Amino acid sequence: MLSLDARHKTFVLECFKIFGILSKNHHYDVLQILHLIKRVGKNPLNLSRAL
To answer: In the chain, where are the structural domains located?
Structure first.
């Protein structure tokens, strides 16, 4: 399992930004990933149900 902490925040956000502007499909994928992160971040035990 990949685990990121606050030290990686800037790098991850820049990667999402670059990936999101590559195409409409990538933009949609990035939005879905961010929504998942937001949901799981509120309750990490929901990860298996969120996928």
So the answer is: 6-50
Query: 40, 47 in Cβ contact below 8 A?
Result: yes
Helix (H, G, I), strand (E, B) or coil at 2: coil
37 backbone dihedrals φ, ψ, rounded to 5°: -60, -40
pLDDT at 37 over 70: yes
Residue 51 confidence (pLDDT) above 80? no
What confidence score (pLDDT) does residue 44 get? 60
> Which amino acid makes up residue 36?
L
- Cα–Cα distance, 12 to 48 (Å, whole number): 22
State the Cα–Cα distance between residues 23 and 35, nearest whole angstrom: 18
